[in-house]
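Researcher: Here's the sequence for the chain we discussed earlier.
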Amino acid sequence: MLRGFLDGLARHMEPDGEAWLILSDLAEHLGLRTRDDLFALFSSAGLRVVDKHDTKPTHPRAHDPEDPLHTARAAETTSLWRLRH
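Model: Thanks. This is the structure I predict for it:
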């Protein structure tokens, strides 16, 4: 889904436009995607990162050691990626 979104994004951007993508790195902590994979998706879509803002989770599951995904959730960062074509 992410690949399809990114691959089509540039077609919807103005020449000097910017797209914002809010994305968690939970998939990275679960071994489903690497950071290098993410940058390769940006690159193959003709996008470059111009800025990134991070936040840590505050939801209860990130602090619940009984949650089966606790380790990944506690390490999770959600980022606002600013992308340009």
